[in-house]
Amino acid sequence: MKTIKDINVKDKIILLRTDYNVPIKNGKVENDLRIRASLPTINYLLENGARKIFIISHLGRPEGKENSDYTLSPVAKSLQKLLPHQTVGFYPLPNNTEFKEIPEKIKIVLLENLRFNPGEEKNDLNFIKNLVNATGAEIYVQDGFAVTHRAHASTDAIKNFLPVYAGLLIEKEIINLEKIIKNPPKPLLLIIGGSKVEDKEPLIDKFTNIANQIVVGGKIAADGYQSNNQKIYVAEDFDEDVSGNKLDIGPFSTAKITDFIKDAKTIIWNGLLGKAEDPAYATASTIIAEALGEKENSITIICGGDTTGFVENLMKNHKNLNYSLVSTGGGAALEFLLGKALPGLKAIQN
After folding, report:
1. 3-state class of 191 per DSSP?
2. Which of 282, 207, 204, 212 is nearest to 247 (CA)?
3. HSE-up of residue 111 (Cα within 13 Å, Cβ side)
4. Which of 10, 57, 193, 289 is positioned for an S-S bond with 218, CB 3.0–4.6 A?
């Protein structure tokens, strides 16, 4: 897979796909980790002489229509704060016009939400062709790992108009995820939580022959998940509300999982262990996140949207937590681990 390090970007106009699908409340970005994750690629392109960088992303599900609830305007402001020595421009999606009015001194331009146009999710050739022509882009950089499992215009159709290269974030994601598929340091521990057993069973089945230990918690365990495989430990005790609903795994199971973590050299965590949006039932997930974030000399991979979001929020207040990869991939990371073909990765130059 060719990355931006394999090409000359000097004086080139770059079209950069990022994942800025971040939480926004009252017009402000609540967590900028995904925006900061794009900075190595942006800075590399600037340092190596890129003439202009047009950044594109989606936010939420506006269903192909303009919707102020899903504008990327707050993201532009957040990006500007993170790049104080640059002027970040923010412009609407083009409508068959070139961006001639953008001053040359503005090297970074964030365009409005891709999903304001129905052509994005329809993988429409004309939509992405118009975008390429309007920007005058010469190179496409794919750095939005979270959408590479979707056959959308910015992940798939784009390959018909520009050469596609991986950004540094995608390179980091792939290197770390490939390690645990091809040759992970052992013992390998897989921690599974969440609520939908049908979503998790493929991952459990995939890693039964790879992992030394698999842990199942969360609502899956609370709902009675069972296994006869000696490798698979299912949480045994739970914290309940007044109605008897099992909303978090209990102290005995949490302690057992932390013991597994102590011995493991590779740990993958996907799925929260309780109803963590309620602080009263976030205890187990917090303990596990801290145990992983403080573990040295091991590969620690956090994946899945809810799990990474939880860990990202925890990291804001616990600066000592460090992980090998807090994947921005969500569903893409899971499909990659399962060995599925991702359209956005197939589009990248080999």
Report:
1. strand
2. 282
3. 26
4. 193
With cut-offs at 50, 70 and 90, classify the pLDDT of residue 60.
very high
pLDDT at 64: 92
* Domains annotated on the chain, with CATH: 4-172 (3.40.50.1260), 184-335 (3.40.50.1260)
Distance CA 47, CA 113 (A): 26
Question: Residue 302, Cβ neighbours under 10 Å: how many?
Answer: 24
For the chain, list the strands marked E by DSSP. Answer: 13-17, 24-25, 28-29, 52-56, 88-91, 108-111, 139-142, 164-166, 188-192, 213-216, 232-234, 238-240, 246-249, 266-270, 299-303, 325-326
Tokens of 103: 């001053």
Looking at the predicted structure, is the pLDDT value of residue 100 above 90?
no
User: 221-246, pLDDT tens digit by residue?
Assistant: 999 999 999 999 999 999 999 999 99
CB 123 within 8 A of CB 156: yes
Determine contact, residues 59/113, Cβ cutoff 8 Å: yes
Decide if pLDDT at 97 tops 70. Answer: no
